[in-house]
Design brief:
This protein is an alpha/beta fold and 757 residues long. Helices cover 42% and strands 17% of the residues.
């Protein structure tokens, strides 16, 4: 395989997110000619083609050319729209700036339009002198002329060129030119156009959904040329989906896929999974990620898993057992956020045992011990038959390797194992809470296995299911938030003196504030301190919010103007909030206040029975009232993190920087609020998925690509971008913080009045 020496970018839909704008204007123009064409059909027929080619196609299909006057008018309309709305593709500036290979742009658009697009998005200086238009050649895409012209001008032979394209015509042109081609699927037009299937059918060399994957794909192809390709598979099982990523040994994500999980809800406090369906979702995600990246099965040398702290129950033979009385056996997993065991958690706290000193002083129903107590009390038949019980991450490594090892991360953080002591299990505590037979029923080992220890290769069944080989080594896994902390804080893996200055905020369905230090720092209202739960030798306190992304979903569901919380509905609400704040002022709906404890207060109050409060509602039920409530809920989530940070600082953490990981990065309102509300610098990782990066570090260590976990962290750490705070927002967010503290006091007063009755 010839080495890649030149990267040729298409412009529209690859460098700039222009395709929806161009299609909007084109369809208006076609309609003015008396021709009706569906938007999806227009995308499929005209994407990536020059205006001259589109005009000829219209003549063939409808007997009508686009006149020169029409084309000129279209350019005027389009340029005006560009000046108002055109944006660069996400992360393209950083990616292009980091490329070590020569690059250029070759587009079907007129040269004037290409230059305007690049100028408006700040990319023109990067491409100046290396801009090629279809107007320079005889035949446009799908003919190869344009790409061959660009290669000649750049002095590179076609077999050494790589094209980045987003259209079937462009992919065909690259193939006809004898060049490799990656298809970019991250443009906002790909979904509405229905083109994904057509693009995949053309079998490009790789599929890119996030432009940040490009450097890793270039690295992969370079290592292939040297005969040294070795890739890592990382799996992250969250609340609603299983995600898989394919990662290079230097920490670059080259492919990512996601499959949904089935969840059984019984009221507000009971939620269950089917662990076999989780495994199937993992397999689907792994196979899809490998396919997206164009990675062969034998190139994957290491794999590991993170997961939520959900509890899986199996019998001696590994068959599933129901976790509710009279339930179906397939629902064998108690979800992490299930609060059925509140009474059992309170009984653990009442025991006064010293294990409480290492979980923040209060047992949470989200930990495994109270769930186990509940299971023994309320589902005795399942308890009597059980022979294996796992934290979900340990279940996944068991399915993958057959090893019964349990992670120091899962056992320490959720099972009251004290990793810093010679005898980690405190059997007197387990006996005191009625779990004296836990070792027999759960199949627990005497000692926990360090994160990233090698458990051996994938077993044959798992290799077949995952689409990998038995050459792939399985590494001891960890909890999802802890993997996020590992990925976000990797650069400090050996700098223990600096750890307490840098926190990780891992935020998605819920949020976790991960505080590390070189010595134990017990903090009321934060779980921990835990030893060896993230970095070997360090201590962790874990504070958090049980429902953040889930709370915003709930707001959409419960409001009359809302609905199912799809990404599209979230985006519609966010865009309207931006417009409302532009017209009414940044301090939108200041009379509306939200106390975001709709699923209890994990930190800093450690009260799982706490409830949410909304103050300041009117009779409004229109869409704008939904947007105002959504905004004020986002404000409440951010200022509650401020409350958590204040509690950690009071205990001695010298927090200066908060490193961000998780799904909240896709919500610009939350990211703005975190930067403005928190008295520290907020850093957003350049890694597309820091949680998958953390798991990949574990896999790399287990596979022997790095000497130890700290070495893997330092070799694979990705840089971050600092988000600047808006000083003008500080006063109003300080007011909101004080309002939230007042609401907590008022809620407590109301609760005391209720108890007095």
């Amino acid at each position: 395989m010839a080495p890649i020496k030149l990267v040729i970018f298409d412009c529209d839909g690859v460098l700039v997110d222009s395709e929806p704008l161009a299609m909007r204007v084109l369809l208006e123009l076609i309609a003015e000619q008396g021709i009706a064409i569906e938007r999806e059909m227009a995308f499929r027929s005209y994407l990536g083609r020059s205006l001259a080619s589109i005009s000829e196609s219209l003549n063939q299909s409808h007997g009508a050319h686009l006149s020169e006057a029409s084309l000129s008018g279209m350019r005027d309309r389009l340029y005006a729209l560009y000046r108002q709305e055109l944006k660069p593709t996400a992360w393209i500036g950083e990616v292009v700036a980091g490329l070590e290979l020569p690059f250029c742009v070759a587009s079907s658009s007129q040269l004037e339009r290409i230059r305007l697009s690049l100028a408006l998005t700040g990319l023109l200086p990067r491409f100046e002198g290396h801009i090629y238009s279809a107007s320079m050649v005889r035949n446009g895409k799908p003919a190869p002329d344009l790409f061959l012209h660009a290669a000649r001008e750049m002095g590179i032979t076609p077999e050494n060129c790589l094209v980045i394209e987003d259209s079937p015509a462009g992919i065909q042109a690259a193939r006809a030119a004898g060049m490799r081609v990656f298809a970019y699927l991250g443009g906002s037009h790909i979904g509405p156009s229905g083109l994904r299937g057509e693009i995949e059918a053309l079998a490009p060399d790789a599929l890119i959904e996030d432009m940040r994957s490009l450097p890793g794909l270039l690295e992969l192809h370079a290592t292939r040329e040297a005969g040294k390709a070795a890739m890592l598979v990382a799996v992250d099982v969250g609340t609603a989906s299983a995600r898989a990523g394919v990662v290079t040994p230097s920490g670059k994500l080259v492919g990512r896929a996601e499959h949904a999980l089935e969840l059984r809800r019984v009221g507000p406090d009971i939620a269950e999974y089917d662990s076999e369906q989780i495994w199937d979702a993992v397999a689907g995600a792994v196979r899809a990620a490998m396919r997206l990246a164009g990675v062969a099965a034998d190139e994957a040398v290491g794999i590991s898993f993170d997961a939520t702290c959900s509890l899986v129950v199996r019998d001696d033979h590994g068959a599933p057992l129901p976790v509710s009385p009279g339930g179906e056996a397939r629902w064998d997993t108690i979800a992490w956020f299930d609060h059925r065991a509140q009474a059992e958690a309170e009984a653990c706290t009442a025991s006064g045992h010293r294990v409480l000193d290492f979980i923040g002083g209060t047992m949470s129903p989200e930990m495994e011990v109270p769930k186990l107590m509940w299971l023994k009390r309320h589902a005795p038949a399942s308890w009597a038959q059980s022979g294996r019980m796992f934290d979900l991450a340990d279940f996944l490594t068991w399915k993958a390797s057959g090893s019964n090892a349990r992670s120091a991360c899962t056992l320490t953080c959720k099972w009251t194992y004290l990793a810093h002591e010679d005898h980690g299990w405190q059997r007197d505590f387990l006996a005191a809470v009625g779990l004296d037979d836990l070792f027999e029923r759960a199949g627990l080992p005497e000692r926990a296995s360090p994160i990233a220890d090698a458990l051996g290769p994938l077993n044959a069944a798992a290799a077949t299911t995952l689409g990998l080989t038995t050459r792939c080594i399985v590494g001891v896994g960890l909890i999802d938030a802890h993997a996020g902390a590992l990925g976000a804080l990797a650069e400090f893996a050996r700098d223990t003196q600096q750890l307490d200055r840098h926190l990780a905020l891992v935020a998605g369905t819920s949020s976790c504030v991960m505080a590390l230090s070189d010595a134990p720092m017990p903090t009321v209202g934060a779980w921990g301190p835990y030893h060896d739960a993230v970095f070997p030798g360090s201590w962790l306190n874990e504070a958090g919010q049980s429902a953040t992304g889930a709370l915003l979903d709930h707001v959409l569901r419960m409001h009359a103007a809302g609905g199912e919380p799809t990404p599209e509905l979230h985006q519609r609400v966010i865009e309207r909030i931006i417009a409302l704040r532009a017209s009414e002022g940044a301090d939108l709906a200041p009379q509306l206040h939200v106390l975001p404890d709709f699923h209890g207060n994990r930190s800093p109050l450690a009260d799982p029975r706490a409830l949410g409060v909304i103050s300041g509602l009117s009779l409004d039920s229109d869409f704008d009232s939904l947007c105002r409530l959504y905004w004020r809920t986002a404000v409440a989530i951010a200022v509650q993190v401020r409350h958590i940070l204040d509690a950690l600082r009071a205990r001695g953490y010298a927090t200066e920087t908060l490193h961000f990981a998780g799904g909240h990065s896709h919500n610009p309102l939350l990211m703005e609020l975190y930067a403005d509300a928190l008295d520290c610098t907020v850093v957003e990782s350049s890694a597309p998925d820091p949680t998958l990066l953390g798991v990949a570090m574990v896999a790399a260590t287990a596979a022997g690509l790095h000497a130890d976990l700290q070495s893997a962290c330092l070799a694979m750490a990705q840089p971050g971008t600092r988000r600047s705070a808006n000083p003008a927002a500080r006063a109003r967010l300080e007011r909101d913080y004080r309002s939230q503290l007042a609401m907590q006091r008022h809620r407590a007063e109301l609760a005391s009045l209720g108890r007095a009755d």
